[in-house]
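This is your field. Have a critical look at the following sequence-structure pair:

***
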Amino acid sequence: MPNAEKCPEDVSSSPYRQDSRRRARVLQLIATSFLLYATVSFYYLASFYDRTTAANAYEKAQECAIRNLHSDLSFLDPAVPIAADEFLERRDRLARALAASGVDAFVLEPGYTFQYYGNISQTDWEPWEPEERPFLMVVLPIITSSGKVSAKTAFLSPHFEEGRVRMLGIPSREEELDIVIWEEHWNPYETLLNSRLFNGRSARLMVDEEIRDFIVRGLDLAGFQTFGLNPEVELVRQQKSPAEVELLRVVNTGTVVAVRAMRPCLVPGLTEDEVTEILNSALLSINFGLFFNIVLFEEHGALPHGGFVTGWKKLTPESMVVIDVGAHYLGYSSDICRSFFIDPPKPRGPIALGFILQLLGKVPKEQEALHADPELRAEKLKVWDIVLDAQSAAAAAFRPNNTAASVDIAARKVIEDEGYGYGFTHRLGHGIGIKAHESPYLNKWNKDVILQPGMTFTNEPGIYLENRFGVRHEDIYLVKESGDAELLTGRRATGPYDP
């Protein structure tokens, strides 16, 4: 029938279906928007998490290192400044060496040697820069009729500085220092020659290795005869007193303890420069004076002193870290090196966040180690052990009457036998005292220097594989009268996670 009415169900069902479809589209749009919002939010949350973690890592590591270090400061207990009488005894020993060498006097200016004999450093005298006006210490051997030799100490000083010289507190047997003064319009070297010390005599002067050339030339032109150091005079400073040994023990043990205290605080993402500052803060917190601090990661560690041209590289769980650091305490130096890995990091965020980060393609930092090269890691561990064995061989060679060369050769042989001789690119070590680098020097050609009791040395073999990594272990040893050398750094490294 053409005019028949539509069924009521047909009329009512069409709007219902349209409304359902509309609601479905709205819900779908809401769900899509929510998912998009959640994705973007989690992405920014993850980015914020990374930025916050990086920002806090440095401060947390710094606080952690200082806290760990201060948990036990017993290594500082033996620290006692050098007594005034010891400076006088040093000058007497120097005088005996001068007399035996047929030298009339020893001449030096403010610096490390002046600090050794007079307790005045370069910065104590001129904190800004070395002064062009000569201020000299002159040590003369005085021989009594009985043959006893003692030191007479005098000083050459600008007249206007005389009062300051007397206020420096330089140890002296006399109530007043013996000072030869010179005016600005005088020749200071001729003044010294014509003084009561030499009475115009063309004396034989031994000059310190740190004295500046223009002073030596001035002495020569005035009529003195100048000579460089000889082994007898060098030996005075090379053989350490018991008080010096204790100070070397304190500052070197403390520096090692500071590195060990810091290591468990380090986390991935820190840069070499940041680790340098963290260690500096720890050392300053125990009143150690900063000297040098070289922090190297991975291939940078193949540059033994690369810390002066690096600093930006970031730490990872697989980084071989090389830290060569020295500090000063009560006038004495440390110089130690440790090579190590940091601890594998633990998850630092909620499990859900870590899951979402993986969904977004952001690998959590604690999983970065999973991507390491196992062969490279195995070689790092192998090299670490070889260098430790080389250090052990050298330690066994620190005995009286051995040559300086023999100690280097002992370590070098271990490394060469393992096929890494090409990677040991520097000498084994050097003397250490008020300076980090003092004579004698341990290299395979130094066959003339004979080890004697009281000498202190660094023992620092290393292997450096260019563009890959480096490993160096450095500790301080004291040559004893007999038996094994004494370790002055507390204890040696035992493993790459226990340096």
About this structure: The chain has a mean pLDDT of 91. The first strand starts at residue 105 and ends at 108. Residues 133 and 302 are 43 Å apart (CA to CA).
